[in-house]
Each structure stands twice: as structure tokens, then as C-alpha cells.
Amino acid sequence: SARPYNLCQQTVCIKSISFRTKSIVGYTELLLQPLTPQLRKVKLNCKQCTVYSIWLETLPDSRGHQQTAMEASFAFNDPTMEICRAEMKQRNLAFFEQRHELAGRQLRITVEFSLQQPQAGLYFCSPLGEDGEVDMRSAHCFTSATGNSTRLWLPCIDSCSELCQWRLEITVPEDMVAVAPGDLLETVYTQDLQSKTYRYFLAQPTCAPNIGFAIGAFELETGPPLSGATASYFCPPPLASLMKHTVSRLPDCLAFYESLLGVRLPYGSLKLVFVDQAYETVQSYASVILASVSLLHSARIVDQAIESRRALALALAQQFFGCYIGMQTFSDAWLPQGISGHIAALYQRKVFGHNEYRNYISDQMSQVCHYESTRHEVLLDPSGAAGPDKQSAVTPFCLRFPQTVPPDYAAIYRSKAMLVIRLLGCKLGEEVLQYVLNKLITLASSYDPSLQQQPLQPGTEQSWRPAFLLSSQALLDLILALTGKNMQYLLDQWVTQPGHARLRASFSINKKRNLIALEIRDDPPVAASGGGGGGGGRRRRYTGAVAVSLQELDGPFTHTLKLDESAAVSDLPCHTKSRKIKRRKVLLSNGDELEDPDLGKLESDCSLLWLRVDPEMQLIRHVEIVQPEPMWHLLLRYERCVASQMAACRALCQPCFHSRETWQALMEVVRDERQYYRVRMQACYALCMISGPLDLLEPLMAVFLSLFGAKDTRSVTPANDFSNLQRYFLLKEVPLCMSLLHTAQGVCPPEVPEFILNLLRFNDNSKNIYADDYYRAALIESLFRTVSPAATVTTENFLAKLPKPIAALLEELSHGGDCEMPPRVPQAAAHRLHPADIGIFKSYAAPGNYIDVRLAAMEAVVNHIKCAKDAAALAWLLDSTVCNPAEEASVRHQAVAMLTIQPPFLRRKRGQLDTPELVERLWRLLNTELSADCRLRCSVASLYHLLYGRHRPKCTPLPENFLVLNVREGRTKIAQRAPTPTPAPADTDDDNANFGLTGAGVGLGSSGDEADVDDDLDIGLEDDYEFAPDEPPI
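== Transcription initiation factor TFIID subunit 2 ==
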């Protein structure tokens, strides 16, 4: 650590909590070990809290002598309350100065504080009862786990590298429960028996970002022991039955992780708390997981069960890597995030199967490539790009601190980190990677357990600390020591550089020499579309090895090509000498043998069946393969890699492949129940795209009807039976595919809505063991999609133009009819029928509705804003949601994310919504009003950058003394206004005081440790840190 002291232990005591005033009162004690007798200053991170007093004392020496505790004066400085200031003043935080011979002894700093009406960090869910007072039976509060957010509710050293043991004492009302990290030592009632105090002790050293708690009137469910650790589950009382089923698979997940890593859960207890209005779906703390109540489900729900298992599996994996094994600096965050994501993906492979795992990896890779091509390149380790010039070449925001990374970038960052860890496993071997991960946890577990009931001693301080902090160099050194392999090249390729590979493969067959002339090149960068500031124009070219698989009649043959900066060209021999020799069986890549395959229209003298590039997905890449149509048909029919089959379905959607042979190949896949269900679903979409131009709607409808057991559109379908889950997902997707069918005039055939209406009318779920909520929701959304927007938007009385059943159903949904629909009912789809009246969606978006229904209604409003350029609707969305502190944090964030996905306008296409008032409003949000919520602040900054870029918005007046140079016409213009005083530097040691978008004045550029961010309480008299003012608007 760069600090002249080590943090040995911290005690947190919350003495009282009020749900009516949304406040807490308490104190914290930090036990420090000075490393130098010249210690003059101790910095603490503290934000939003009111500090009443700070006391300093030294611990008794060996003779029992102790100095009297002394109260220190203090001041507070938070440079991020207003990023760009018109006037900045010097603020020195003078606290305490002590020079005496006992400077080497441990110090205890006690800070008394309170927190009132927090804007972020600590969230209160305080529903009102019928009397207008807070209903204490369902009230609860919880913390958020975003990067370095502990300072928002607790004075601490909020750094990922400052580890210590923790004691937490939380006093709550008698009918409430407090859940915190560590083992519960005791529960003690106060003298008046009106309150009780929960005392926790966390023996394993961890950093402040891994500390959080939840308080509320929770229902407790004790699960079976987890390999020696106690398991406790908490949720609001009405949901106890759902919680019991939701967590039933958690012991199996933990058993898999323990078997995979070869170690037990590092904590003596595990506590899972389900909370309402959660900040994120899951949040992991040391031995504590906070999850949203939206993950709860009954045994009759199918869709949510899969999502819940994935989310909880990831949160449990983060207990090992993320909480127990942390990161040295934020530049090393890709390691714990990538490792936890990787082992969670391996659990998905065990539970959901190998096909689902490969499809998941392919989807994650596609998302990463799409984001890097259209938005920003993802740099996992930004430590090598310390300068602002290097960082701005990658992203317009700072990458070295969690407070400045937008949430959409952070999500892709986690996906790419997981892919890199998987690539590392491919290079080393899965068993070797598991051995390396086992060694990491074993080294940390070697910390002496006899020290659990006493503070860490100075002599052992540095010996154990590196074992709990993971860095890129430490991982490389460990791999080299255990395996003798140097994996530095892999990190240089994917970690310290941004971007991905965009490969384009083409070939020709030399029949005389029986060779395949194969060329693979890295596509040139394509400029990002939409003004998103994408990294397409800056993307580097990939150089390295590329695996190519040639499926021949004699079997699959894999070749490795070396790709340089231009291309890789190679003549590959065909192992199959001739097709004249009849072969009854063809060996496939997975070991299966194909009996007498139908080669279709493949050339008679061609022994190559199909081509695949990087078949094992050992690169982070986007692949485009140029091969004849018959080869795509063979690949789709016979290849057993689901990722390749999905790619074949997408390739056959190209207009050049629209033929009856393609239609027949896709139809075979849809009908074949042995095919993976996701491939069949993708084939359904492909069929819908090519059937219209080929005039094959009638036979396609016949196939879709046969899947439901119906002979025609008026037939009554059998009762629901979802026991076969693959068939269930296919049946739920087919109506959505059918709704895409349109004639040459752009109108959906009348048979489609008639059939979907019959599915709804005669839906029978009485004998089904699973609920049909999601199935009926898919039917309703499909029904709305059958109505062409072009046919209704310009029609005033469009309800009269619709079929009566559709109009009646639309009226029922629009006026809040009693429709037992699940989350994501299609208000957004219904919006295409109500372009002028969005009042119903405003009512659905109001607090009190289910969270997913609210988000669907907001999506409809955002779509309306983009299409109708409605300034009033945009103002309503900003007022009621984004700028409303009383709104749920997740809803505010999602509203901004929707505006980012569907911006009201783009910077290159100015419109009537591009006004100085909107600029001022967004600027106030990201500059001053969102100083506490870094996630929402970064989201607004991303939206601002999407709308206006990094320069001055064109709709705003010119700044004072601003020089305009017109190079083409040779003219200059100076805005003659009174100059604005230059801001003076502010005094701070905020190492992260610039917020993201440099050049637009929205930027946080910095250096140093991420703990010294935002706010400091300094012990000492001198302060030689300076805050560099933001770059003025250009």
C-alpha cells in the first residue's frame, strides 16, 4: 500500500435507524498501524454523512500506559459535488497533528456520524400504510454495491486494496432483523426491550467496498448446512413460500463450485436477502448476497427460474472471487469479475447442458463485438493508458475508477473479462486453470485462523495481504511457477489492448491439385453508426493464429493459419481424394457418424462440405464466411455445433440465399425434434424472413400449425403441456415469428391474427403443471405485432379499422383491465397503435405498478418521444423519473438507458428537441445534482455524449471571447461578451475528480488510488494535493 499506515480492523456501530426520516446514527472505529514515525495525516472517505466528532487515541503499550483520547477539529471537502465550478476556493482539512515517541503504536480513530435522507449508497423501502404512515411490517433498507460506494453511508478507507477485519453492531427495532457480513456472535436486547443489537464479526480480511447490510422485518428461512457453513435466507414476509423454492438449488451450486475449485466456502456463514426496489438484480458482499424480489418464483414458473438460477449462481461465484479474493487496483478488476463469470458459466454448462453453454458464449461474444463496433472499444487493463490522450483514444471517459465507468460499458467489460478467462483456460487446459484457481484460494486460506478474535498484528501485516489481492502480474507469476508457461502474450493481445478481431474468410477450390486456397483477412475498421462515438474507426487489427475447420467427406480436419497485419493466405490440402468412392458414413467434429448424407446441389467433384473459422471460439471475434449456398445448407443440417448452426441461420437470411432449397433446409430443421431448440427457433425467424419474397406463406403456416397440433387456423389446439421445456420455448416463440409474416403490400396475412386469437381464446392450462403466464404474454405481443404500424399511425379512428377481437383486447389492456399478465406485458407493442395518446402509459409507469410493467410503459413513452419528437413527453419523463430523487434508483437508471438506446435525436441530425433548455437540464444533472449516484451520473453523461459529443452543443450560444474560424471561407468571428473569470484550482486529493467526458466539460481525469476519490477527512496540517480544473468546453 502507498499509505504510511495499515488498516488492521474497523468497527461499525449503527445505534439507531428511522424509516420515517430515512436516517441512521452511529459511529465507527478504525484501528491503524503506522508504518512511519513521520505520520502526519490520515485520509478517510466520507460522503453524504454528517460528522459530529472525531476522537484519536493510541492503544496501551506493553506496560499498560495509554494516552488520553483527544478530540480533533475537522473539515470536509467534496470536489465532485460540482464538477465544473465558476468559483473554486482553497479547502484545507486540518484535523490533528501528534508528534511523540509512541508514534509507532496502533491508533484508534473514532468518528461519530449520522446519515439523513441519503441520495445513494443506502436505500430505504418505506411503503405507506392506509393511515399514511410507514408500514413497518414491510419496511426495510439496504446498501448498494457499486464501486467505492461504502463511503456514501460510512466514513472509511474506501479502497479495494485496504483490507482489514470487521466488527459490525447494528441496533434495530425489536421486530426487525439486521443482516451484515461475518458470523453472528450474539443478539442482545436493550434495557427497555424495545430494540436489539446484532453483533457480527468478519474474521477474513476484506475491503470496505465488500461491506454492506440490510435491515427489515424479514422472514428467516434456515437452509441445510453448506459444507460446514450455515445458510440463512431472508425475504419480506408475504414471499416466504416463493423464497423456499427459489433457493432450493443453491446448495447444489455451491457444491459444484467447491468441487471445481477444490476448496470450501471461505466464510463460516452465507446469508441471502431478497429486497424490494433493489439497486441491482444481485449484489455480493463478504458472506452476504442482496437480491431483488423479482428473482423469486414458484415451482410452476419456467422462464424466471432459469434467469434466477443464473443470477444467484453468479452472485455465489463472486463470494470466492470478488469478495474473498479481491483486486489490487481497479485496473485489475477484470480478474475477479472474469473468473467469477467463468465459473458461473461452467455451472450453467453443468445444469443447462453443453449446447446452452456454447450458445451463451457465442451470445456474449456477439454482444462484445457489437458494442465495440458501434460504441466504444473495451480495455480491460487501462493501467498502460494512464495519460488522458491515450485514454481518450479508447473511450471518452476515465477507465481507471469505478465511479467514472458507465453501466453499459461495465456490463460489456464483465462479459469480455469472462471470455478472456475462458481463453486462458483454452490455452492452459481446463484442469490446469482449475489448479491455478485452487492455488489462489489456498494461499489466501492459509491465513492463520488463530488471529480471528484479535486485531491483526504489525509483524504479520504484510505477509498475508498479497494473498487476498489479485493482480495481472501476480496471476502471470503464479501460472509461470505452476505450469512453466508464460501467458504474457495472451494479456498483451486481449487485456492491455482494446478491440476484437473481425475475420472474413473466403476460399476457392483447385480441383486439379486437390487444394483449397483459403484467405482470411481482418476487415478494415468501419465507422460507428448513429453518432455513438464507437470504436470502429480506432480498432486495431488482429495478428495471430486462427484455427480453421474443413469438414470433408473423410471427416473434419483442423488447420492453423498465421494472420499478419494484412491477411493469411494458404493452400490447404484436401484429404478426401475423390467423391467417386461411395462413403456410407461421414465423421463429424463431435465424433458422431453421419449415415449417407444428402449432399444436395453440392458440386459432384467437391469433397469439401463446409468451412468453419475458429470453431472452438478461442478468439474474441466476429466472423464472416463466404461459401456457397449448398455448404450453408449442409452445415445447418448436419453440424452439431449450435453456434455454427445459429450462424448458418443468420447467413441464410441474406437476400442472395433466398431460394426454395434454403426454405427446405430451414424447414427440415424446424421439423426435426432432435435439433437444439434454439436452432429451431432461429430457423423459424429465418423462414419468416424469406417466405414472403418466395410466396411460400401457406406451406409455412401449415408447418407452424402442425407444431401446435392444429390442422387449420380455426382448429382447437390441445391442452397445454409444458413438461417438455424445449417444446415449450419453441411454442412460445412460433407466434412471435408468425407475426413477422407480411405480404408484398406489408400487411400480415389475416390467417395469422385469426390463429393467434384462437390460441388465446381456447387456451387450456387446467391440467398443466406449469403456469402459462409467459406463454399468454407472448401470444398477446404476437397479436399486436400483426398490426402494421404504417396502416394505423396515420388513421385517426384506427380501432374501427382493426379486427374486433384485437380492438377489444387492446381496449382491455389500455384501460387497465383485469388481465393476469406476467412482467413485460406488451404495453410497448400496444404503443404502436396509440401514437397520439400516451396517457395510459404514463399511468402504467407510475409508482405502485410492478417494476417490469413500469419499465415497459416507459419504453413506450421513449419510443413515442423518438417517433413524434414530443417535447412534453420528454419533459415528463425527466421530471417524473430521471430528476425525481424519490423514484427508485433502478427505474431512474433504466429510464436513462432507454433514452440512450433510443435517443430522441442524434448529434448529426438536429431536431426540434435539440434545445438549450435540454442541454442545461442534462448538464445540471451530471454536474451537480447526481453527485452521490455515480451510476446514474455516468448514464446521463453517456446520454449527453451521444446527443452532443465531446464539444459544445450547437444549439447553445457561443461562450464568451470564443473564436470561430471558418477555414473554407477564410472568415473569423469573435463573440464579444464579458469574459468569465478563470476558475482557480481547488485543493483536494481526490484522485478521481474528473467525470468521464473530457472536452465537454464532463470529465473526471485523475491518477492515484481509487480510495482517495470524491471526499476526504484529513488528519494533519499540510495538504499539498491540487485539483486540476476541468477542460473548458471547446
